[in-house]
Amino acid sequence: MLQLKGLLAVLFWDLVVEVRRGEAVLSMALFAVLVLFIASYGTSGLPGLEGTFGPLILWIAVLFAGTIGLSRAFLVEKENGALTGVLLSPLDSGAFYLAKVAATWLYVMAVGILLIAAYLVLFNFTRWDRIPFLLLAMGAFTLAYVAAGTIIAGMTSSLRGGEVVLRVLLFPIMIPAVINVLSAGESVFGEPPLEASRPSKALVALLALAVVYLSAGFVLFPKVVEE
Amino acid sequence: MSFFRLHYFLGWALALATLGLMAFYAPLEEKTLGKSYLIFFYHFPSAISCLLFFALAGVLSVVHLAGGSAEADRQALAAVEVGLLGCTITLATGSLWAKAAWGEFWVWNDPRLLTVAVMWFTYLGYLLLRGAVDSPAQRARYGAVFGTIAAVNIPLVWYSIRLFGKVSHPMNVELDPRMREVQWFGLMAFLVLYAAFWRSRVRVARLKDETRRLEETLALRGT
Amino acid sequence: MIWKSLSGALLQETLPGEPPLAPDFRWQVFAAYGAAILLLFLFSLWSAAQVRAAERKLDRLLERIDRTGK
Questions:
Q1: pLDDT band at B80 (very low <50, low <70, confident <90, very high)
Q2: Fewer Cβ atoms within 10 A, N terminus or C terminus of chain B?
Q3: For residues A76 and A17, is the Cβ–Cβ distance under 8 A?
Q4: What's the complex ipTM?
Q5: What is the dihedral of CA A53, A54, A57, A58, to 10 degrees?
Q6: Segments forming the whole domain that contains residue A69
Q7: Which of C33, C38, C45 to mutate: most B Cβ within 10 Å?
């Protein structure tokens, strides 16, 4: 299928560019770890607060650092005028959107995994058996986040003050995802949740959110890039 | 009097009539909330209006994306502006309600208050986005894209808070027949008033577009 | 199911309520009503002012077009 090949080509190209320049993932990772570091220091003297505050800061760090990745996703095209080239090619804009989402998701996930590792160290987290679930939650959360964020970043990357507008627009949209991921994290970080099945339900809900945003993006992205 | 002026006049008259009903017809006290429950009679209409207008904005955004209709975009913008107005009133009155019912001006476990707050931020962002775009066609398109995302997101916010938020604080409001009458009257009154506002905003948008079109014509002619 | 959750949302949850110890905010409620009406009134004034200004600008432009176009 031409579309699938095109999608993979864009994805591969994006990854190659990122590996060569390496700037975005590095700055995202540094920023996120610094946030976590400061939070860890801030809650170090207060035993009760660590359990509740730590996970929240983990997700917020992913959110804030992720906006760097989202802005970068379109910066590359804008710099080289490559966006027009892609649009003129037979590749469907929706497929292009999915490629961008996949690439950005990989970067944000890389940062997320690094962040979990940092969390283990800084917050003395030892519940190893819950790590796979945490990774799943992180994956679903970042997928929903990047899916919605790519649509919005596609619009704001060409605007004056676009960086600020991206954040102002994206964070209210992300509130359902944050609520769900906090609930999913209950079984990982806090005391056992009120209902044993709530975290898994929250994880499924996160995936559902991701599907909704991906579908919306697939349909709306062509409208974002049309001239 | 033009139909538009009549509409406005009717809206204001009905809104003031609601005040009268609140003061003299509705029962003075309610079981749980005492005398403070009276705020319900304009909290409820503002909340419903805000929801309706934001939903309308979502539908109009999709219409604009599907057909490129500039009128649909103008109506969507007007709907967001009026919805945001109702949203502000809902938040303010909801805050007073929270104080009466639970003793605090803001609570984190009422899904309704939180959803309305999220809507407020979301649609304020909508206006910010439109303000940042220079080209009118692009402004309409981007507004419509974000309007669609925002409208899709609102039920997601609501259900996320209901299902996965912190434990919900129960609120019990018992309404007797006279209260219900005032409630629905108030809803009708404020819907009429907000609809008048909406028409006014659509008219402003049309005039602005018309002005811009003429300015471009003049510029093209070199005058 | 959607209607049930919405109507629960709109009016009341069906868990037993607390006894009526709520403070009396009667005058605050009416003052807030006044403030809300004031806000709506200012909004309509602002909107009407914008309509007038836009109409005036439009008239001026039409005048210019009539003068220079002919």
A1: very high
A2: N
A3: yes
A4: 0.89
A5: -150
A6: 2-225
A7: C33
pLDDT at B154: 93
Q: How many helices (H) and strands (E) does chain C have?
A: 2, 0
Contact between B128 and A168 using a beta-carbon 8 Å cutoff:
yes
* pLDDT at residue B56, as a whole number: 96
pLDDT at A164 over 70: yes
On whether the CB atoms of residues A166 and A67 are closer than 8 A, the answer is yes
What is the number of alpha carbons within 13 Å of residue A121 lying toward its C-beta?
8
Residues B118, B121, B123, B126: is their CA dihedral positive or negative?
Answer: negative
Residue B33 pLDDT > 70: no
Cα gap A191→A55, rounded to integer Å: 13
- Mean pLDDT, rounded, of chain A: 86
Residue indicated by tokens 């804008």 = A78
Query: In degrees rounded to 5, what are phi and psi of residue B175?
Result: -115, 130
pLDDT for residue A81:
64
Beta bridge partners of B30: B34
pLDDT digits (tens, 9 = 90+) for A16-27: 777 777 777 888
Interchain proximity A165–B65, CB inside 8 Å = no
Q: Is B166 left (phi over 0), alpha (psi -120 to 50) or beta?
A: beta
CB contact under 8 A, C12 and B207: no
Quick one: pLDDT at residue B30?
65
**Closest to B33 in 3D by CA, of B146, B197, B171:** B171
Other Cβ atoms closer than 10 A to A46:
9
CB proximity C20 to B under 8 Å = yes
Q: How many residues does chain C have?
A: 70
| Number of structural domains chain A divides into | 1
In-domain check, residue C19: no
One-letter amino acid of B209 = D
Tokens of A50: 């660590």
Tell me the mean pLDDT in the region B121-144: 94
- Give the pLDDT confidence score for residue C15 in this predicted structure: 38
C-beta atoms of B89 and C36 within 8 A? yes
Distance from C-alpha of B181 to C-alpha of A191, rounded to nearest angstrom: 47
Which residue has tokens 């014509």? B217
pLDDT score at C20? 47
Instruction: List the domain range (segments joined by +) for residue C49.
Output: 44-70
Query: How many domains does chain C fold into?
Result: 1
pLDDT digits (tens, 9 = 90+) for C26-66: 777 777 888 888 888 898 889 889 989 988 988 888 888 78
- Entry pTM: 0.87
B183 in contact with A, Cβ within 8 Å: no
Structure tokens, A44: 């170090």
Domain ranges of chain B: 41-168+175-216
